[in-house]
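User: Show me an example of a complex going from sequences to structure tokens.

Assistant: Sure. Here are the input components:
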Amino acid sequence: MILLVPAIIFLVLLFLYPFAYGLYLSLTNAKGDGTFANYLRFFADPRDFRTIWTTLWIAVPITFINVGLAIPFAYYMRRGLRGEKLVTFFLIVPITLGTVLISEGMLSYMGPKGWLNQFLMAVGLVKDPVRFTHNYLGVVISLGLSGFPYAFLMLLGYISGINPDLEKASQMLGASKLQTFWKILFPLMVPGIAISFCLNFVMAFSVFPSAVLLGQPSGPTRVMAIAAYQWAFEKFNFNAASAISMVMAAIELIVITLVLVWRGRMYKGASIVGKG
Amino acid sequence: MNVKPKLSSILFAAAITVYVLNVLGILLTVILNSASKGWYSGLLPQIITGEWYRYVAADHDIKNLMLVTFTVSFADVIISLLISFPAAYTLARKEFRGKGLLLSLFLLPMIVPPMAYGIPLAMLCYKFHLAARIIGVILVNLVPIVPFMILVLMPFIEQVGTNLESAAVMLGAKRLTIFRKILIPLTVPGILTAGILSIVKTISMFDLTYLVAGGKSQTIVVALYADAYAAGARPPQAVDALAVIYFLTAMTCLVVALRFVSPTQMVFKLK
């Protein structure tokens, strides 16, 4: 038991205490008197309140895209294939390098004179350069480039852990591949899908560097993290910043709860299918 | 799914190719741009130059950036091993009330994104005068690394049978001796895996480091962000040159890491 003590001290000092401190700050003013003013201010200020929708509008679609694409890809690679190591290597690179480098690179690569636009115009797909950067699209693309591999590798780990005999049994009993997928594999993947959805959403929802570098941080991609950062380190109002952090955490908690409820429902559904 | 397998493999290959080409395109653009002059159009730059690297070397204290980056990574690995190994051992071996709760509390810092708890954490660092110093950067980076290490180490410890430990106890070994002579030698692969992955993670950890780092305690990735953010302040090629320096650092560590671990171990896993 005593061996847990350092880890518990770590958890309390560096995670729980800061969180509690943030909560305390959000509920007090600069003098330390208790007040709801920070939250009221956030919800009353249209420029700040809007960040909730801005952030959701970025995070929700890209999370669905990342996880939605990762499912068929993980399904396809579930028993391994040639060149798997190379493929996974290229998937892990954007995760390792992080969003700062990817965003920085995207600025030139996807810029009006970058290779991507040169290519698109050369093959005649577009006439004028597409604006991929300094807008909503740029932020979403960067989140896709780093979020998709994350979801994919997680689901791959999950799906390759499913006993292949189940699939064989289902096919022997005459089920088509599609039926096997929907009735056997998908329900068994639900917990994996749920957790990778949660993590992908949480990452996308707290997007910061790419929203600044690739987006329009003063307007269409002014996400909650930017608002919180500005209050803390530009206006030095730690109370207002903490309130935004807490709202961020609360929204993430709500979405995670929703996903877990969905998982619970799907699991019940799966067992009924199993009996039938 | 019930289309002919051929179509699905073509689709798969095409999608992966598009993905890989774009990632490669991004990286190659950065590399080429950092070594070119006046590359405003066309497929390839006309003039190759090393001047942007000289510019970066004059602009930044590269040695200090490297030193901070690796000091932080290695300090974090050692500190978090000291915290995580005993904790992972207890969580892997012992059953006790509230274990599930404790385990999920330990997972929490991995699931909650840095930007949500990072701001209050950074404020505490400023309050206790830890911010803008290497010690502060090391401390905040522990937050995601310790839980990650516990999670990576647990299965490795579970694999070591309890027989050896029981035998050692019967022969009168103390707990410290058991750790030193049995557990640590047998879990070296796990320690290596956890350590290398943590180094890779810390090098690319932006959010937390950014919130507490000051001028002298910046890591490379934070310096890169600051340069890219102040886009007008210096030529874009110089920013790309710093990006290449960061890229090479992170990639070297990744390539070393991949000699020991599989890529799927680098993402969060839940049993």
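The lines above are the inputs; the final block is the predicted structure for all two components together. Chain A is about 75% helix and 0% strand.
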